[in-house]
Design goal:
The chain is α/β, with parallel strands linked by helices. It has three domains: 88 residues, NAD(P)-binding Rossmann-like Domain (Rossmann fold), CATH 3.40.50; 209 residues, 3-Layer(aba) Sandwich (UDP-N-acetylmuramoyl-L-alanine:D-glutamate ligase), CATH 3.40.1190; 132 residues, Mur ligase, C-terminal domain (Protein-Tyrosine Phosphatase, Chain A, Alpha-Beta Complex). The protein has 17 helices and 20 strands. The longest helix has 16 residues. It is globular, with a radius of gyration of 22 Å. Belongs to the MurCDEF family. Pathway: Cell wall biogenesis; peptidoglycan biosynthesis. Keywords: ATP-binding, Cell cycle, Cell division, Cell shape, Cell wall biogenesis/degradation, Cytoplasm, Ligase, Nucleotide-binding, Peptidoglycan synthesis. It is an enzyme of class 6 (ligase).
Length: 443
């Protein structure tokens, strides 16, 4: 059996290692450059590879192809594979049959990383033998090859879900759905929503779907479609006989007639959206039968995720916050919503079809000045030019932070929450966040 892996990054190299271990004839092809550390891993495992090209003769003879999530379906080589009827799948689909571990799959437009990290923290604190993978950390496929975990917590992007056929998580979470990556879905929101719901398409009556009952797109899909999974909702405004909700400043989670209660102010994560992430994660912990004392302790000591509303420093009584992971409007909505002081907002990057109107009322209420950090800021300037007193364009992070500092007074906040992808000026959102933190430390 010939396995061709498109993309020589974390998921690609991990899949190649697992494929080799399972007796496949493996070939890795990357149209870009493969990083040296990954090349070394491929060489030491005796795996053939090429980079900066796709040699069709070596690819189109595959029995199965694992495509890295970053490669679009519209890529010429992918189109050719599909035309020939060669299965093109994701790392998760390839690796899942080789493990008997149960998986907890987490998707959503926002909050999925925080929820994934929190679920992992809860299960690990309880002493479970658990792995963390998917869109985050070490490749799931490589862990299946090398580690023997009993369960995995997987962050799953819509791109990874597009490449599944039979995979099903035992427990699925959809944190929320808002327009994102529409450039990959023919600019049709419903295609993107369907993509997220692929997480539940193979689930059975023995599986669970935990979801945000306040989310319009999710509610609409559930009204018009069915899943066999047992539904467990969470909400900030409704209450349930089974599910998670807020009542009298307590978070309550009721599953199988067993109730868990915790005061909301004892939960380490701040903000309404994080309360939802905590409800989703606690629902998993209850399904995994983790002791209440352990859940309480884990929720009260969880540190949060880097580049997500991360407090960097307070300088001259101005708080600097790194929310570089906010790569869409909805994520930035949460960030602005949780600001309690006049805010200088650093925004911009590669726009993925954003509608900034959703932010208008929050910008009017909370933002005193905007620093645009991107190659093309026209849409942002058109949207907010008349709304804030001060609007400045910059082309690098040091200038952005220095300008922001000049615009602040004591008690203000400087918030980097770009609402856009980072690829115009940075390698990725981590690079953008790290440059922000470095620039703040240099003030």
């Amino acid at each position: 059996m010939r396995l061709v892996v498109l993309g020589g990054g974390e998921s690609g190299v991990g899949t190649a290692i697992l494929g080799k271990e399972k007796g496949y004839d493996v070939f890795v092809s990357d149209f870009g450059k493969i990083k040296e550390n990954y090349k070394e891993v491929l060489i030491s495992n005796g795996i053939d590879f090429e980079d900066e090209r796709h040699t069709e003769d070596l690819i189109l003879n595959a029995d199965v192809v694992m495509k890295s999530p970053g490669i679009p379906e519209k890529a010429p080589i992918v189109k050719k594979l599909i035309e020939r009827g060669i299965p093109v799948i994701s790392e998760i689909e390839f690796a899942a049959p080789f493990t008997r571990a149960i998986t907890i799959g987490i998707t959503g437009s926002n909050g999925k990383t925080t929820t994934t990290m929190l679920v992992y923290h809860l299960l690990k604190s309880a002493g479970l033998n658990v792995g963390l993978g998917g869109n985050i950390g070490k490749s799931f496929a490589q862990q299946v090859a090398e580690d023997k975990f009993d369960s995995y917590v997987l962050e799953l992007s819509s791109f990874q879900l597009d490449g599944i056929v039979d995979y099903k998580p035992h427990i699925a979470i959809i944190t929320n759905i808002s327009p994102d990556h529409l450039d990959r879905y023919d600019y049709k929101y419903e295609n993107y929503i369907d993509s997220k719901f692929r997480i539940t398409m193979n689930q059975t009556e023995d599986d669970y779907l935990i979801y945000d009952a306040d989310d319009e797109a999710i509610a609409e899909w559930l009204k018009n479609n069915t899943t066999k999974a047992k539904l467990i909702p969470f909400s900030l405004t409704k209450t349930f006989n089974e599910g998670a909700f807020i009542k009298n400043n307590n978070m309550e989670v009721i599953i199988n007639q067993d109730e868990f209660k915790m005061e909301t102010e004892s939960i380490a994560l701040e903000g309404k959206h994080n309360m939802k992430n905590a409800m989703a994660a606690t629902s998993v912990a209850k399904l995994m039968q983790i002791r209440k004392a352990t859940i309480r302790e884990s929720l009260s000591n969880f540190q949060g995720v880097e580049h997500r509303l991360e407090k960097v420093l307070k300088i001259q009584n101005v708080q600097y916050i790194n929310d570089s992971k906010a790569t869409n409007v909805n994520a930035t909505f949460f960030a602005l919503d949780s600001m309690n002081s006049p805010t200088v907002w650093i925004v911009g990057g590669v726009d993925k079809g954003n509608d900034y109107n959703e932010l208008m009322s929050l910008v009017r209420e909370k933002v005193k000045a905007i620093v645009c950090l991107g190659v093309d800021n026209k849409k942002i300037i058109d949207a907010f030019g008349n709304v804030v007193d001060m609007m400045i364009e910059v082309s690098n992070m040091n200038d952005a932070v220095r300008m922001a500092q000049r615009l602040t007074e004591k008690g203000d906040t400087v918030l980097l929450s770009p609402a856009c992808a980072s690829f115009d000026l940075f390698e990725n959102y981590e690079d953008r966040g790290n440059q922000f933190k470095q620039a703040v430390q240099n003030l």
